[in-house]
């Protein structure tokens, strides 16, 4: 098959998943790009993680009572899932619909929320917003359980509009007013949670959403230009049909899956990087009654996606999980899992515990002097370990190409095996000279594997490898 087919498949799997080994890329390319997209956007066609079996290895995951254990489990799922887009879309919504461990009634509530992202995250955006509005983790995190008909709390209403559905504005205009925030908060009075049952003696029961009609404000409300005796369901329906909502969802999808956009607070007065692409996604949003799966299908099969290779800085999660999938480590729970998962935190993304309800700033803001060192050290250590099955597979495939490899063949072969990466000409030339300076490269020599792993380490330390 053509090298361009492998390169395109590598691009798709980095964005719609967390990368793939060269062997997987070959198999998927042989199956076809369109067929792969269909499999990704329909994850139920593939087997799910058998969580009950994992619990035998990691019994501390059963209660889901602590942050680190939940980070371990989710990282392990992302590394080993056969449904990569399902986990990627859960990560996508977690970065937008933020709840944090630092303010969580019971940690397992977040896992229940992530399961909702997995099952509803590619369906109707209206249904997803409705589910979020009734999600106990979110109701508690944004204080709607503290909002009453005679004393409204605006926290949930404000963030629903500003950060979860519309954004403050677009094309230089505001999407809503302060009065809309207040009316939104009034509509959600009475939406609260039951108290979770204490832990002992049988283990803690989760909180549940409950509607308290005696605490709901039944007065007439005017919201986004419409008037009525609105409840939360009415507000969600009104939000879902707004042009600003279509723009908000489209720009987030583009920013996460295609290319880095400006940070969200700038969107009101900063036009999209690719207005035609955003318009295409907006049109699909309305054409399909707000269906995220259809928007993703349009996105992944578009020319603007296919031509956007290496235009996104990888997030810490993508860096760690992608590296583990490449080297094929942690395919079963084992010692070191906690340290590996915590590396994501050290790179600047504390999963399940974002710094604020705004989430993380992405793109180039993932990188500073400290997090850059963490990235390079982690990836270099992983690809430099020739005991990893994935590294050994790369060595064997390169060894099968002849008795002697030229410096150019070594560099280009390693780039190909890492997922069809490309380097600036000056960087590639320096790596070729490095390989040449170490002498003739015989594939049967005792040091062949070490020289391949050293070249892999040199490549993952480059600026180009920061991008997906």
Description:
With 468 residues, this protein is mainly alpha-helical. The chain has 3 domains: 1-30; 31-306, no CATH class; 389-466, no CATH class. The chain is 53% helix and 4% strand. It is built from 23 helices and 8 strands. The chain has helices at 3-16, 22-31, 33-41, 51-57, 67-80, 84-96, 108-120, 125-133, 136-141, 155-162, 178-187, 232-240, 243-257, 275-287, 292-300, 303-306, 316-327, 337-346, 369-383, 389-399, 407-417, 425-437, 448-460; strands spanning 169-170, 173-174, 191-193, 209-211, 221-223, 226-228, 404-405, 441-442. The strands form 4 sheets. It has a two-stranded antiparallel ribbon with strand order 1-2. A two-stranded antiparallel sheet has the order 3-4. Strand 1 and strand 2 form a beta hairpin. The longest helix has 15 residues, at 243-257. The protein is globular. The model has no long low-confidence stretch (mean pLDDT 95).
Characteristic key phrases:
mainly alpha, 3 domains, two-stranded antiparallel sheet, 4% strand, globular
Number of structurally distinct domains: 3
The percent of residues in helical segments reads 40-55%
Distance between the termini: 23 Å
Strand arrangement, major sheet:
1-2
Query: Total helix count?
Result: 23
Strand count, sense and barrel status of the largest sheet are:
2 strands, antiparallel
Number of strands: 8
Give the C-alpha Rg.
24 Å
The percentage of residues in β strands lies in under 5%
What is the SS-derived class?
Answer: mainly alpha
The poorly predicted ranges are none
- The coarse overall form would be globular
The residue-averaged pLDDT reads: 95
């Amino acid at each position: 098959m053509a090298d361009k087919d492998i390169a395109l498949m590598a691009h798709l799997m980095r964005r719609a998943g967390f990368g793939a080994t060269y062997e997987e890329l070959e198999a998927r390319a042989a199956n076809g790009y369109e067929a792969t997209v269909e499999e990704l956007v329909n994850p139920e066609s593939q087997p799910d993680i058998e969580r009950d079996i994992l619990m035998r290895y990691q019994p501390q995951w059963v209660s889901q009572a602590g942050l680190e254990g939940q980070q371990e489990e989710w990282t392990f799922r992302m590394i080993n899932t056969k449904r990569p887009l399902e986990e990627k879309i859960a990560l996508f919504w977690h970065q937008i619909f933020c709840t944090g461990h630092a303010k969580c009634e019971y940690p397992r509530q977040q896992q229940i929320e992530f399961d909702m992202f997995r099952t509803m995250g590619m369906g109707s955006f209206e249904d997803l917003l409705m589910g979020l509005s009734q999600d106990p983790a979110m109701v508690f995190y944004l204080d709607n359980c503290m909002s009453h008909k005679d004393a409204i709390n605006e926290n949930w209403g404000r963030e629903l509009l500003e950060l979860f559905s519309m954004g403050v504005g677009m094309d230089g205009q505001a999407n809503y007013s302060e009065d809309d925030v207040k009316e939104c908060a009034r509509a959600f009075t009475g939406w609260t949670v039951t108290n979770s049952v204490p832990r002992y003696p049988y283990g803690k029961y989760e909180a549940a959403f409950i509607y308290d009609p005696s605490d709901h404000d039944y007065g007439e409300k005017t919201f986004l230009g419409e008037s009525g005796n609105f409840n939360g369901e009415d507000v969600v329906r009104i939000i879902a049909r707004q042009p600003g909502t279509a723009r908000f969802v489209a720009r987030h999808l583009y920013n996460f899956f295609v290319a880095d956009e400006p940070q969200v607070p700038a969107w009101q007065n900063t036009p999209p990087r690719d207005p035609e692409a955003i318009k295409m996604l907006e049109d699909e949003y309305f054409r399909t009654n707000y269906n995220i799966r259809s928007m993703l299908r349009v996105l992944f099969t578009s020319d603007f996606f296919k031509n956007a290779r290496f235009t996104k800085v990888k997030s810490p999660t993508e860096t760690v999980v992608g590296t583990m999938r490449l080297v094929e480590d942690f395919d079963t729970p084992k010692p070191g899992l906690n340290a590996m998962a915590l590396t994501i935190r050290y790179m600047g993304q504390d999963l399940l515990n974002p710094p604020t309800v705004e989430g993380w700033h992405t793109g180039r803001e993932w990188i500073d002097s400290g997090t850059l060192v963490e990235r390079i050290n982690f990836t270099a250590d992983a690809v430099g370990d020739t005991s990893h099955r994935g590294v050994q597979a790369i060595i064997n495939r390169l060894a099968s190409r002849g008795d002697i490899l030229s410096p150019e063949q070594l560099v280009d072969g390693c780039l190909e095996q890492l997922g069809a990466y490309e380097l600036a000409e000056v960087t590639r030339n320096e790596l070729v000279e490095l390989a040449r300076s170490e002498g003739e490269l015989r594939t049967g020599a005792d040091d062949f594997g070490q020289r391949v792993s050293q070249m892999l380490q040199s490549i993952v330390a480059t600026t180009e490898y920061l991008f997906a």
